[in-house]
Amino acid sequence: MKQVFGKKGNIIVEDVPAPVCQDNGILVRNVCSLISPGTELHSISSRKKSIISLAKERPDLVKKVMTYAKQSGIKKARQLVQSRLSDLLVLGYSASGIVIEVGKNVTEFSIGDRVACAGAKYANHAEYIYVPKNLAVKLPDNVLFEHAAFTTVGSIAMQGVRRAGAKLGETVVVVGLGLIGLLSVQILKAAGCSVLGIDLDQKRCALAKSLGADATATPPKNNPLKEVTSFTEGIGADAVIITAATKSDAPANQAMHMCRKKGRVVVVGDVGMNIQRETFYKKEIDFLISTSYGPGRYDRKYEDEGIDYPIGYVRWTENRNMQAFVKLLSKNAVDVKPLISATYPINRAQEAYNSLGKDVITSVFRYTKKKQPERKIHVSIVPLKKGKINVALIGAGNYAKAHHLPNLKAIDDYTVRAIVTHNGKDAKQLAKQYKAVWAFTDYKDALSDKNVNLVIIATRHGNHAEIAVAAANAKKNIFVEKPMALNEKDMNRVVRAVKKNKVHYMVGFNRRFSPFAIKAKEILETKKGPYIITYTVNAGLLPSDHWTYDAKDGGGRIIGEGCHFFDAFNFFIGSETESVNAHSVNSKEHSFHSEDNVVSCIKYKDGSIATLVYTSTGNKDLPKERIEISRGGVSCVINDFRELSVFGAGGGFKIIGQDKGQMNQLKAFAKAIKGEASAGLTLEECVLATKISFDVAKQIKEAS
User: Fold this and answer.
1) Cystine design at 644: which of 246, 511, 516, 683 (Cβ 3.0–4.6 Å)?
2) Is 138 left (phi over 0), alpha (psi -120 to 50) or beta?
3) Which CATH superfamily is domain 2-150+300-366 in?
């Protein structure tokens, strides 16, 4: 399918694989999509800026990069920054079209429904879009697709009006008569308010009056404060809605003077907010922010998973604002036709963006009807080479980009044949970067490729078992990032499929392949007696709504990450487990999740004891991982997989940079696939570490 992107300040149209319809949403054939000039032009222009300019504007991001450089090295940090800056910019967030496929958890829509769609990650300028159900609404037959494409920006205006608490008969000032401002004027008039519009452009003021504004003012020709005083007969405005975009603090402070005592100021646009206290205080102004299209915005469970807020508690959500705006369109209470300067086909995208200026409010893309979406793109012609393992990478998140893809490129045994990810843009870009033949959005296409010898599964945790079973049944060798599965039932399904189809299988328990771990084991194996191991993981805090905590998507931090460390224990000790005990800090008394701070103790049948201390309360300057291993009078300390110190049997050694064993593990797996040597991690060992993680997670859950 064709999709519009920004690239280094320019506009391009690329062929990318169409999205897959997921369980909680719908697949839509776009008919129209709306260009949002303010948001999109700002995003495009920011890509033209130098790294130094961006660093000055976003010191918070600089801090994150510095932290990443400290953890992963300067080279990887530089690669990450360069990758982000060269990445294609996805454009568009307001569209309309026809439903062509419905997810299994969706009952609200049917194939053939006319819909309006929202979301910066979803309702893009593309021929096909996947949209979660809470970001789509049905359209009445009398609403044109061109007009329905305004629904998202209309909802932004709607939420600003709601935040202003505008009531019948009140006087409201709208500062900034761009796209959102002109929609706000009409919504306020539909609500029975008197409206004064303010803008520097006389043509926009004239357009606002034609759309219902009672009066307008054009600074510096008109003094806004005097105009508001006159318009309100000396009372002052009940509310001021700021839809302008400027770094200046003047609009926010001027709005305070426009208001009556106990009036309201609502910021919808991106403006400076260094507020002067005196007027704010003396008038007891309510100063409010309006967050995009309403409650639910930035809530993953609401937007991505489709979990709604009860209407009795949250009357107006993103979706209900969208519905309300569509009703206004249907009743002709809002007229968007005068706001459309032109309609363009997608192949004239550069022309459409070039036309945007102060005399243009917005333009619309209109798409021609296509056949069924194509979810694969042939990227390059790469001859098959004898002896190479052809890899399909399924899931291309940050970890896969930082580790698996560079390692596959560096190891001569492998060739990247296909990239699979839900995001068609990422699939194609990475396929081009790593000279893969195919870019897919559906992993089933990779499994049907007879030339694929190995699939690497690096999706979110909840998909690991399902994809592994399908891959095994397709006779593909499997490397799956941890965890193996989120529950014992799915783990057993994977084991049965792997054994039945006799394919090679490995979980990404890479710590045992680190040169530090291997060296420590070599030293300690010469000693006698039980091992005593303490593994401290300074895990850090995650946002409370992070997907890792989701039972279906992430499985929690212990199952999702703790399995790594349990496998490391098994690697060193090499004995069967006798008992597992786990305790966590009471999450009800603190602000963190129950799996954030856990101590688990595993006793082995040979007398060894291993303790995992997993904490989010540690200082960020401490190493993320520290392992102390003692046996027979010798102690080894591995410090963040950068340094090994040995006490009682010589010194230690360092490696420039961090080495957690990711590349060594892939090298070992290649030998196993080729029948040259043992992989160093058996299916049974993968199961053992996974079972320990299940046991620890269960004990924590039962105790919390």
Assistant:
1) 516
2) beta
3) Medium-chain alcohol dehydrogenases, catalytic domain (3.90.180.10)
Run of H or E including 224: helix 224-231
C-alpha 329/C-alpha 473 separation (Å) is 51
User: For tokens 């504004």, what's the residue?
Assistant: 213
Q: DSSP labels for 110-123?
A: -TT-EEEEE-TTTS
Domain 511-662+680-703 has CATH 3.40.190.150: no
Rounded-to-integer distance, Cα 572 and Cα 436, Å: 38
Lowest mean per-residue pLDDT among 139-148, 234-243, 361-370, 435-444 = 361-370
137's tokens:
């609404």
3-state helix, strand, coil in the chain (%, to 5): 35, 25, 40
- Give the residue ranges of DSSP H helices in 598-682: 662-673
Query: For residue 240, what are its two tokens?
Result: 């001021």
Could you tell me the pTM of the whole model? 0.89
- Cβ neighbours of 220 (radius 10 Å): 7
Chain-centre distance for alpha carbon 454: 27
The tokens for 694 are: 């299940």
Q: Which two tokens stand for residue 538?
A: 């300074």
Secondary-structure class of domain 384-508 per CATH: alpha beta
* pLDDT tens-digit readout, 586-609: 766 667 788 899 999 999 999 999
Tell me the C-alpha distance between 156 and 360, whole Å. 20
Rounded distance, CA 704 to CA 209, Å?
A: 61
Domain assignments of the chain as residue spans, ordered by start? 2-150+300-366, 154-289, 384-508, 511-662+680-703
Question: Of 276 and 513, which is predicted with more confidence?
Answer: 513
> Is cis: bond before 345, omega within 30 of 0?
no
Neighbouring C-beta atoms of residue 540, cutoff 10 Å: 15
